[in-house]
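Batch job 17 of 40 flagged for manual review because the log was empty.
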Amino acid sequence: MMSDCSWLLGLVSNCWKVQLDSGTSLDSLISEAVRRGLTVTELRQGSLGEYEAGPKCVPQADRLAEMAGRFSEVRFNVALSLPCLGGELSREDSLFLAGRSSAMALAKGQSPHLRLVDLQTRPEQCLESSIESSARGLVELTEAMIEVEGVLSIEHARQPWSWLDSVMRAARRRLGERSSRLRLCFDPCNLLLTERAEDVAGIVESVEPPDVSMIHVKQRRNGQVQPDLGDGDLDWPKLLETLRRRGHTGPVLLEIAPHAEVWANLENAIARLICVKRIT
C-alpha cells in the first residue's frame, strides 16, 4: 500500500529487528519501506544491521555515508541510548561522538540530526534540584551538535513528564537564540511509563509544535508495546487529530514492536493513519 497520508511518514529501524537478526540487509528493508511510502528512517542503535559494530552497537559513519548515497529520497537520523538526562554525559563520550559523526554522514545537505533516549535515569533521580544540572548537560550536548550545524532531539522515557519538560525549558533558556537546535522526540506511548493514562491527552494538547522534531507512534496493551497499531491504551485517532489541529508538521515515525509479519502490520498502521486523515 502506498501512503497518501498528509503526514510525512517513516519508521524507526527497531521495527525490523526480527528481520535484521535473521540476516535481512538493512538496505533491502529501507528499499521496501520506500516502496510503501515510508520516506523517513530513524536508524536506532541496535537495529542497524551491518552498519554498527561491537557489543555497544556503535554506528559506523563511513559505511552509513555510502548507504545514504543509495537512498536520495530518504531522510535519515540516528538514535542512541545514552544517559543524557543525568547531567554527567560528556560531549566527548565516544558513543555520542560516533552518533554525531553518523548523523553528519547521513545528512545529505540537511542538518545532521541525532536523537537520544535516556533509559538509565530513573524517576527517583528526577528531583527539582537536578533540573538545572540536567539542563546544563543538554546544553553541552546541543552545542556539540550546533558546531556541525546539527540538531539534537531528546526522547522522554522513564522520567516524569513534568520534570523532563522543566529540564527542556531550562536548557532552551540557556541556549537562547539557539534553542531551536534542541528539540523533543514526542512519544505519547512512552508517557504511559510515568503518567496516568487519563492525563495523556492533556499532555499531547500542551506540547508546542515548534519544540517537536518528530512523533513516534506505537500502541500498548496490557503493559506491552504491540506489533500493530490497533485498539489499546492509546486512542490514536483522537491523539493524531489533536496533533494535526495543533499544527504539528514533523515526521510521524511508526515504532511498532518487532514481528515476523512486520510489513503487514506496517501496512495496517499506514491505513489507520490514512483513515484518520480522511475523517478529520
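Reviewer: the log was empty due to a logging misconfiguration, but the result itself is present. The mean pLDDT is 94. Unflagging and moving on to job 18.
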